[in-house]
Design a protein that fits this description.
The structure holds 2 protein chains of 2 kinds. By secondary structure, chain A is mainly α. Chain A contains 2 helices and no strands. Chain B is α+β, with helices and mostly antiparallel strands. The longest helix of chain B is centred in the first third of the chain and has 36 residues. The chains are: A mainly alpha, B alpha+beta.
């Protein structure tokens, strides 16, 4: 009788111990994963910064005024006169 | 002896037990108070000492043109803030900080000394270059911190400045579409819980309280290439004719999408505002003007719609002037008898007045009202002005006459472009939008009979033919229909015969118009001031550029007929 009761208490005690350890473990794991997530997010952030900078660069280099200027001045390009255009009928 | 000894011993024993019991009770009571009664308070306090929630800024959405080219981009940028309480301990290093910031030591000292005694946060410099931020971080100065913020950049500079608007230094939209769509663009900042060390530096982030959500991108109706052409040609026209200001609107006739909208003078949205305040207004939307002769096609359309004239009617305009009460309506010269087409081609004030007087003012008003004059265009643009068109029942004879040729009402260039869309689109007028239309089947509202719209369009083609007022609006390869306008400016001293608005409003390809362009030049002060001389060439250049960008089929050239011979040639 006595041993039976003792066994039950011991069993519950072990269960409590196990869940307590599990709680600690998952908490630890959650923090670890969160820090990993933050690592990825930082990476995303850095890439975002690069991306926005590249967009700006793209926007600046491809500014129509600049392209217009280079085409006309440096490359001596001009819009063809209407009479120089041949229209191809498909 | 032994008796008293045992007495003392027992007394001692009891005292000891009693004391222990009291201690135990005190400890238990205290534990009860702390663990049960004050538990949540203490936990909070503990957390407050080592945990903290920090805000995380959301990235503002981009503004893109209809082809997804970026027109406004937010990019992370640093601001430098200091904790004067800490920095005051190391005044000998102010010089280093100033050097890193590219500022004078005096300014650094000023900022710190001006801060109240217990203030722990003062901006030292906002939106600094990345290189400066790096130098500042390298100092490792206690009390100097970098904060991540977002700067707004407009790659097109002043080209699209009025439409896009601007944001304040905190990234909130304050003008133009930035203000209108602020809610959608700005996103929602998030919060994160972090653990701090003794010095208050966050060293570990534990969890999100709520994740920041970035703002939505906004896709506009603008086409950056057309916008640039419009900007460039308007600027050229305004400079060539020493004008005070100018506006141009390029619109899709079917969808009401604004493909380009520019004003002069413009401002650079990448520079902080300064002496440019007046330049920041989007005149094409906010400044109504008397439209002069550009209203005449609508007077003629109203006459046709109301059945008081037909395209073959003949209206006598001799001797080139006409008296109504106190008003003398004048033409440039005596044009004799004119058809409605002739009236528009020569821009006869007398002819158009006579047409208007044939119908009841309320009926004419109803047509103009349907065409959106005095009404909302649907653009939602902040500060949009609806112009003025008094109700027809209030028109006197004189007003009936002057409104026929564009005085006594005021319209914005945007309204004018929309009304011309009705002529271009066989009488169906779209609502104006600055956003790319997702609904590909969108159709506006019918405001004119299709026959009437087509007839007026044909008449407007004659305006750009030899002998018309708008010859210079022609575009090689395309049929163009449009109308010139030159109106006197109304000032505090009444109409000034030496200050003008010059207009050209038109559409192409006229066989099936896709585009409407309205050009308005305010106070051209050179030798030329007529709409046909000042605005029409700009119209031509802008329309030609837009047609080329969109690759629309030329309708003014003879295309070889598609034949079997041609096809077999191609096959080889």
């Amino acid at each position: 009788m006595m041993t039976h009761r003792f066994a039950v208490v011991l069993a519950w005690w072990l269960v409590v111990l196990a869940t307590a350890i599990a709680v600690v473990y998952t908490r630890h794991q959650s923090r670890e994963l969160f820090s990993e997530l933050r690592g990825f997010e930082k990476k995303i952030d850095e890439l975002d910064v690069d991306w926005s900078q590249l967009q700006l660069e793209y926007g600046t280099w491809s500014m129509d005024a600049r392209v217009d200027d280079i085409a006309r001045r440096d490359l001596k390009m001009y819009a063809p006169d209407f009479h120089d255009v041949r229209i191809i009928h498909r | 002896m032994s008796n008293s000894e045992t007495y003392v011993q027992r007394w001692r024993h009891m005292l000891f037990v009693g004391l222990v019991a009291v201690f135990a009770l005190v400890v238990l009571g205290r534990a009860f108070v702390l663990q049960v009664q004050q538990k949540s308070f203490l936990q909070q306090q503990g957390a407050a000492r080592q945990q903290r929630t920090i805000p995380v800024a959301a990235t503002r959405g981009r503004i893109l043109d209809r082809n997804m080219t970026p027109l406004a981009v937010s990019t992370p940028i640093s601001s430098v803030w200091v904790d004067p309480r800490k920095l005051r301990h190391t005044p000998e290093r102010y010089g280093e900080l100033a050097e890193a910031l590219g500022q004078t030591p005096q300014r650094v000292e000023d900022v710190i000394s001006r801060a109240p005694e217990n203030r722990g946060f003062v901006y030292m410099a906002r939106h600094v270059d990345p290189s400066i931020a790096k130098n500042v971080a390298a100092l490792k100065l206690d009390g100097v911190n970098l904060q991540r913020e977002y700067g707004r950049y407009y790659p097109t500079g002043e080209v699209a400045s009025h439409v896009l608007g601007s944001t304040d230094i905190d990234g909130k939209g304050i003008e133009g579409l930035e203000a209108l769509w602020d809610e959608s663009l700005k996103g929602a900042p998030g919060e994160r819980r972090v653990i701090r060390d003794l010095k208050g530096r966050a060293f570990s982030e534990i969890e999100y309280i709520n994740k920041e959500s970035d703002g939505n991108d906004l896709v506009l109706s603008l086409d950056r290439r057309i916008q640039y052409v419009a900007y460039r040609e308007l600027k050229r026209a305004v400079e060539t004719h020493s004008a005070k200001s100018g506006s141009v609107v390029v619109m899709n006739t079917r969808t009401g999408e604004v493909l380009a909208l520019a004003n002069q003078p413009a401002f650079n949205p990448n520079a902080s505002s300064g002496p440019q305040i007046g330049n920041r207004r989007n005149r094409a939307v906010t400044d109504p003007v008397e439209p002069g002769s550009t209203i005449k096609p609508f007077t003629v359309a109203a006459g046709l719609e109301l059945g008081v004239i037909n395209p073959e009617s003949v209206i006598e305009t001799s001797p080139g002037s006409f008296q109504i009460g106190p008003l003398r309506v004048r033409d440039f010269r005596d044009y004799g008898d004119l058809t409605p087409e002739g009236i528009l081609k020569k821009s006869s004030n007398v002819g158009v007045t006579k047409v208007s007087l044939l119908s009841d003012p309320a009926d004419t008003w109803a047509v103009l009202d349907r065409l959106g004059f005095g009404n909302d265009t649907g653009s939602l643009f902040p500060g949009e002005n609806y112009g003025v068109l008094r109700h027809g029942s209030a028109w006197r004879k004189v007003e009936q006459a002057t409104i026929a040729y564009g005085y006594g009402l005021s319209v914005t260039p945007l309204q004018l472009a929309r009304a011309y869309s009705a002529l271009a689109n066989d009488g169906v007028m779209p609502d104006v939008t600055f956003l790319s239309r997702k609904d590909k089947n969108y159709a506006g509202e019918r405001v004119l009979d299709a026959q009437v719209a087509r007839a007026v369009r044909r008449m407007l083609e004659s305006v750009v033919e030899p002998g018309g007022t708008g010859e210079r609006a022609r575009v090689a390869g395309y049929r163009v229909a449009g109308k010139t306008g030159t109106s006197w400016k109304h000032t505090a001293k009444g109409y000034r015969e030496d200050k003008y608005y010059a207009f050209f409003a038109g559409m192409a390809p006229a066989s099936n118009p896709e585009l409407v362009v309205v050009v308005m030049i305010d106070e051209p002060s050179g030798e030329k001031y007529y709409g046909g001389e000042v605005a029409a060439p700009a119209f031509s250049a802008i329309m030609a550029g837009a047609l080329r960008v969109l690759g629309l089929t030329m309708d003014a050239i003879e295309l070889p007929q598609r034949t079997a011979a041609l096809d077999s040639e191609k096959a080889e």
